[in-house]
Known about the structure:
The structure is a single chain. By secondary structure, the chain is an alpha+beta fold. The protein has three domains: 2-51, no CATH class; 64-97, no CATH class; 105-170, Alpha-Beta Plaits (2-Layer Sandwich), CATH 3.30.70. 49% of the residues lie in helices and 8% in strands. The chain contains eight helices and four strands. A four-stranded antiparallel beta sheet has the order 2-3-1-4, covered by helices on one side. Strand 2 (129-131) and strand 3 form a beta hairpin. It is elongated and about 65 Å long.
Amino acid sequence: xxxxxxxxxxxxxxxxxxxxxxxxxxxxxxxxxxxxxxxxxxxxxxxxxxxxxxxxxxxxxxxxxxxxxxxxxxxxxxxxxxxxxxxxxxxxxxxxxxxxxxxxxxxxxxxxxxxxxxxxxxxxxxxxxxxxxxxxxxxxxxxxxxxxxxxxxxxxxxxxxxxxxxxxxxxxxxx
Length: 175
C-alpha cells in the first residue's frame, strides 16, 4: 500500500518533491509495521523518482493481455475474462470504450417542466443540450458544460444532474 501511494504521488503530483514522496512512503511502511518492507519501498521509489515516469507497457507481442491491461488501466483478470468471452480485438475495444467519460446529463422533472422547457432554460444559461437516447427525461449536455448546476432551471427544480443510465433504473416495462 505504501509503495502504491508513493508511486502515485511521484507519477501524478509534480509539485511534491521526490524526496518528500519517498520519505513519506517509507515512513508509512514503518507505521504499518512493515519495517522490513521499508527498504524495498525506499529502493523502488528512489529508482522511480529518477524519471518520474511509469514503465512502458508490456510488449503486445510478448504479453498481449498485459499490454491491453496496462494501456487501458484494467485489471489483468478482467482483460483475460473479456478476451475469453469476446476475443482479443473486441476485448481491447471494450477496454478502450470503458475509459471514455460519459457525457454530462440532467433528468427533467416532468411534474415541473417538459423536456423542451428545461432545454430552453439551459439554453438561456448558454448550455447546449440534446435529448437523451434512452431515457425520455434525459437531456445530454454539450461538452464543456459547467460541472456545478448553479444555473437557471436547476434552482427552480426543472432538472437535476443524473446520468442517463441511472435514470433508466426507475422505469419498468409492462409485460
